[in-house]
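From the methods appendix. Each design record in this collection lists the tokenized structure first, followed by the designed amino acid sequence. Records were kept in a plain field format so they could be parsed without special tools. The example shown here is representative of the layout used throughout.

RECORD:
FOLD TOKENS (319 positions):
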């Protein structure tokens, strides 16, 4: 582990609102755990094995970082250009695969089960990110067409469905389309009590947005409302929610000319009201995050070529 700064408090941890001070640990700093990736995505923590999995999409592999030894190894290659991951209630790996345009589950013996690859006879586009509803075990995922744009994150293809947000029922395996009106749905996360689902619209214009929806016991969504507006070139991507309802969002420049990447790259933190309260600056654009570690208070950040970590004074709603 390589700390990026030897100073406490770490100057990379910016307080935008006093509320963030209670989340910041004075004597914790951003650490680089691994590097050499081409596009890091989809971190997921396995507490029972004390390791982190992270996707390296263009290299068609999933890497494993071991918390005890610090060693980095290949967990799966090829990975079918896997992107986002989650774990179900049985501890099995749920994966979004761009190349095969499907959602899979890795069983405890290593077998791979396909959970969804078509809806109403049409192929999915390129499942991007996923999360689980703990109260009913349903698998939720976003399905933009990013993996169909070329060979970098999948292969060229033609969308057969609108961009969507889907739900797989845990009891029946039924696939339902919950939303099909967002441009580039990307990261998604539940509030701590799972009464609200947050979804990032990564192709919204002129700025990326986070939408909030009421989530009913039967899995239906209602009452769409704007939760966060990037209000500029900030590239909201994947996110995780902590136990207090704060959203920790992968952030960076959207590539617009003249933007200051150094000011934007990292993780932007929003309180439950959608107000920005903190920013963890990284030397690379951050795509996605998760909570984990031995006590659940470690934020793992998948950022372009590298994986970073930071201990914080909260724990993840999902870990």
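DESIGN:
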């Amino acid at each position: 582990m390589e700390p990026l700064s030897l100073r406490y408090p770490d100057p990379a941890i910016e307080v935008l609102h006093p509320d963030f001070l209670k989340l910041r640990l004075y004597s914790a700093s951003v650490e680089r755990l691994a590097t050499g990736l081409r596009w890091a995505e989809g971190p997921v923590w396995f507490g029972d094995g004390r390791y982190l999995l992270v996707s390296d999409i263009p290299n068609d592999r999933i890497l494993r970082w071991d918390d005890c030894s610090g060693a980095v190894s290949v967990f799966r290659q090829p990975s079918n250009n896997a992107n986002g991951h989650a774990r179900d209630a049985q501890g099995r790996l749920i994966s979004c695969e761009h190349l095969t345009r499907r959602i899979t589950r890795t069983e405890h013996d290593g077998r791979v089960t396909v959970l969804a690859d078509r809806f109403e006879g049409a192929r999915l586009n390129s499942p991007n990110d996923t999360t689980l509803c703990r109260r009913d075990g349903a698998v939720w995922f976003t399905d933009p067409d990013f993996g169909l744009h070329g060979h970098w994150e999948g292969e060229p293809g033609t969308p057969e469905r609108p961009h969507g947000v889907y739900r797989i029922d845990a009891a029946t395996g039924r696939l339902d389309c919950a939303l099909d009106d967002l441009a580039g749905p990307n990261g998604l996360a539940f509030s701590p009590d799972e009464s609200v689902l947050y979804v990032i619209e990564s192709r919204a214009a002129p700025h990326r947005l986070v939408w909030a929806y009421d989530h009913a016991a039967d899995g239906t969504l209602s009452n769409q409302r704007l939760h966060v507006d990037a209000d500029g070139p900030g590239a909201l991507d994947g996110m995780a929610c902590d136990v207090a309802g704060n959203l920790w969002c992968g952030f960076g420049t959207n590539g617009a000319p003249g933007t200051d990447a150094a000011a934007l790259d990292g993780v932007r933190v929003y309180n439950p009201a959608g107000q920005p309260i903190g920013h963890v600056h990284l030397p690379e654009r951050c795509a996605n995050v998760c909570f984990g570690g031995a006590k659940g208070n470690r934020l793992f950040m998948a950022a372009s070529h590298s994986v970073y970590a930071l201990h914080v004074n909260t724990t993840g709603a999902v870990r």
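APPENDIX NOTE: The chain has a mean pLDDT of 97.
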